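Hi team,

Below is the intake form for Lipoxygenase from Helianthus annuus. Please confirm the fields before the structure is written into the shared record.

FORM ID: S-0412
PROTEIN: Lipoxygenase
ORGANISM: Helianthus annuus
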Amino acid sequence: MLKPTINQSCSLNNLLPLHKPFVHGDAINNSSSSAYSPTILRQNTSTKKCNATPARSTSAVGNIKAAVLPFLTKATTVKGVITIKPTIRSALSGVIIGDVADGVSDLLGRSFLLELVSEDLDSKGKRKTVKAYARYKALDFDINVYTYECTFNIPNDFGEIGAVMVENEYSKKMFFKEIVLDNGVTFTCESWVQSKNDVQAKRIFFTNKSTRCCGGALTIIWWRKQLITISYLPSETPEALKSLRAEDLESLRGNGEGQRKSQDRIYDYDVYNDLGAPGLSISLARPVLGGEQHPYPRRCRTGRPMSTKDPLSETRTILPFYIPCDEDFSEIKTVQFGARTLYSVLHAVIPILKSALSGRDKFPLFTHIDLLFNEGVNVPPVEGGIASALPRLVKGVETAKAVIKFETPETLDRDKFSWFRDEEFCRQMLAGLNPCSIQLVTEWPLMSKLDPEIYGPPESAITKEIVQQEIGGCMTFDEALAQKKLFMLDYHDLLLPYVNKVRQLEGTTLYGSRTLLFLTSSGTLRPVAIELTRPPSDGKPQWKQVYTPTWDATGAWLWKLAKAHVLSHDSAYHQLVSHWLRSHCVTEPYIIATNRHLSQMHPINRLLVPHFRYTMQINALARLALINAGGIIESTFAPGKYCMQLCSDAYDQLWRFDHEALPADLISRGLAVEDPTAPHGVKLAIEDYPFANDGLLIFDAIKQWAASYVNYYYPQANLVESDEELQAWWNDIRTVGHGDKKDEPWWPELKTQDDLIRIVSTIMWVCSGHHSAVNFGQYDFAGYFPNRPTIARTKMPDEDPTAEDWQTFLKRPEDVLLSCFPSQIQATQVMSVLDVLSSHSPDEEYIGANIEPAWEAEPAIKAAFEEFQGRLNQLEGIIDSRNSDPLLKNRSGAGLVPYQLLKPYSENGVTGKGVPNSISI
Ligand SMILES: [Fe+2]
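The structure came back. Fields below:
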């Protein structure tokens, strides 16, 4: 059932001609365990999968030399073409590959040693292989790959080719794109093969399709040109490949010891003990994330030495952190690749900005913010390479001085005043950068769950009367609560424990906050109240204040300032939780577990791998320079040095795997209820909720694709339970990668096809739709920082004010707001980083755009993928028509940025749309 073509008989229509038999070339006809010679005829014993009737008897041909009677021989010649992607270094230098020693390898025609492995064992139960050296052929300028060729002499009774073992004779690692044999067998590699000088073990690749030699003792070699998917469940792996499958996985798991080297390909777990730098300064010491005290997902183990100042902390390095070599594409990607661009921003642009803006604090006027887009920041001349890598940011390098000039964000371009308005403040909770925090109010009064002894009275100061006053005329408070018209952005209990600690840091402040919203009859949200809370501190009691949209000047400015505080909370939550934690961070354990436990020939590996591209690389870069102690996030976001601890709290208190699929996420926030009659099985509490409406279309498409795929490879439930690789994978995710939550009762079981569909759909959605919704709008929505300040640096003017402070506020409230906003250095650093984070790489791989070779090789899977692709293509038109529907006021209207973040496809650059398969930036 898994390989339906296997038992078909060979037909003459499917026969391939014999290719130049016994043109030996560079073939080596020996084997590590079972040698073959083209001149020795053997009877084919492999009839397991193809029972072709021989065209002619071969009983009398045993002693006939193959070279004399080629049609009666027992071996055939198969040519192989290997394609290698050039590294950036080799492409730029114009050399072929490698150095002088490698040139010798080329001359000798011994660049790589390839050893084909049969799916069948020989009569003694040993592995059958055929070897050949590959010789450099050419550089193909059209497709920018180097090609190598080799020739194998394959005995008739070799059986199906199931794998190839590769030895790299060069002194440098090489990136193998694919190996194609002219009998139809293809190995899709997309992987580094290290020099044999560095890694002794041969690299193993399994076929993604194969032809079957049906001849055996035939006088004519019968090849059946029938593609066969070689995604095998562990129990169905051909006997001869089982040990290779196990060896490959074992090498990927490593032994958990020692420091990882760049050529390693080992996936192992570690805690986040490398964010701090206690060796540099005690102020840069940070707690370990991961473990009982600060629960957190695991990251890839690098094994760097521990700090002499803190035995719990791993030392840091200025170099990129180790990631398994197959996750590192920096050598073969274009210079515009996101991680490289981000690296350029972090290591070149940020220091320049810091230097140029040194000594400046707040923006003196709003017009000075506009200058960032109109004139830019004058900086000293920069290296030409940086300017070419960052053409959107760095201008004018030919002159004596350069300019870092920002593109006008879409929100500002369409409506300069949108950031100021209340309805836009609310709309962005449904169609902005962080559309996954809003929740339904289900209980009243609003109460804190924190300890009142420490944090003060738990009752919210937002009373029924305040709400009634704000929504009066529409309905009563009780009606609004009963009819699910009240919603909330609740950052009270998460932030309040950090308020006193953050307030001890220089240049910042913090509150716990609640923002109450009312759903109007036109389907838009209207703000009702904002509550800011400070816990008891320094002998002062708890302070809390409720702000409402109001009709007097002082109240109106206080309302604007309260909104700035809430937006800084939402910005921090978005970056630390919705973006980093819920996509980048939680996915790393999925990637590690997949590589440790699912063989590259496992169908679920092949389903998930496209969703994992580049994620470990971008995560390693984030640990190096974004989320580290003193890094960009700590320096520019509201919780300061406590950012990552807060992230750990959110993981501990809020994150649940079973709530990460979009429908479950919506239901958990009260934004939807299950409804089997509704199009996606859920009914939304806010009908015009652009993120949910578009996201459900993508989620459903993913789920259907996953269902077709899973049900094909697992036609019976018992196959899921008995798949030891799959069970080990899921066990690793639950108990190691997310081990701090291993005892949670909500982890889904993995016993049936539906369980598996649910699990893989969740992972695929998180990597694609969820990440795109919270990532690619960052510059459009937060590039003009008054719309989403990352930090609110000053307390509210009415919190224990001095007479002088209050007078300052009354006299020039605009100054108070500008002082509250990020400083010039903070704002421009964030703008630079968001610009890169919002950008699509030229070689982005969008969801449903490209079929994987292994999927294409299997007709049923190919058809399912094409259906998936068709559904995604339809989304473009559906989203366009939604955005032009005037009735959908949360995505269509004067000056609004249309909601395009979940449109599947995009051009390069910052476009505010496009859903890549994976978290690549
Ligand atoms: Fe991201």
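SUMMARY LINE: The first strand starts at residue 27 and ends at 28.

Thanks, M.
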